[in-house]
Amino acid sequence: MKKVFAILFFSFLLISCGSTKNTGKIPEEIIGSTTATKKPVRKVKPNKNTRVTKTNTRKVEETEDTVNESPKDTRENIIEFSKTFLGTRYKFGGTTEAGMDCSGLVYTAFKKEDIELPRISRDMATKGILISYKDIEEGDLVFFRTSRKNTITHVGLVVEAKRGDVKFIHSTTRAGVIISSMEEKYWKDAFVEVRRII
């Protein structure tokens, strides 16, 4: 009797599976399982802010805020961002595309990488470490005295440091945000020190 019941039950299962209409769609509950009819998954190249993990056999992208960048990458990001302000007019106390001063440019470029610096150049000159001019690198800060006062009044961000040719981006009262060379007599005479923040 048990055998007859088992055969009838098995036959019922076969008949019910065979009567299901094939719609060509994969039921939601089996998406992601290993089947021959599974649609190919488009590969997503993770960028530096993306982490790909597996959850219930599905790939999930998660944004990760704590991505470790090398100091060199951070310096390059700061330099590239500062260059987006080239041609911006000078504005005392400014930190936006509407206008900025020298320390405003440096402050804004570093802040983009979550590095807080003081807002004025003479206070920036108390941060980081003092570097010999011969060891200057891209991303270092150069400080100047541009008045008769015996204090730092101007700052620039080094964007190029090749032998004998150091260029820095800064904001000037006359031309706004520009790139200048340390070989220009005015800047050579006004130069005070180099500091490395990163």
UniProtKB/TrEMBL annotation:
PROSITE patterns to which the protein is assigned, alphabetical: NLPC_P60, PROKAR_LIPOPROTEIN
Domain of life assignment: Bacteria
Region of interest (Disordered), residue spans: 48-72
Keywords associated with the record: Hydrolase, Protease, Signal, Thiol protease
Gene3D superfamilies reported for this sequence: endopeptidase domain like (from Nostoc punctiforme)
Secretion signal span: 1-21
All copies of domain NlpC/P60, residue ranges: 72-198
InterPro entries listed in its UniProt record: NLP_P60_dom, Papain-like_cys_pep_sf, Peptidase_C40
Protein family (similarity comment): Belongs to the peptidase C40 family.
Protein name: C40 family peptidase
Organism this protein belongs to: Aequorivita echinoideorum
Lineage, top ranks: Bacteria, Pseudomonadati, Bacteroidota, Flavobacteriia, Flavobacteriales
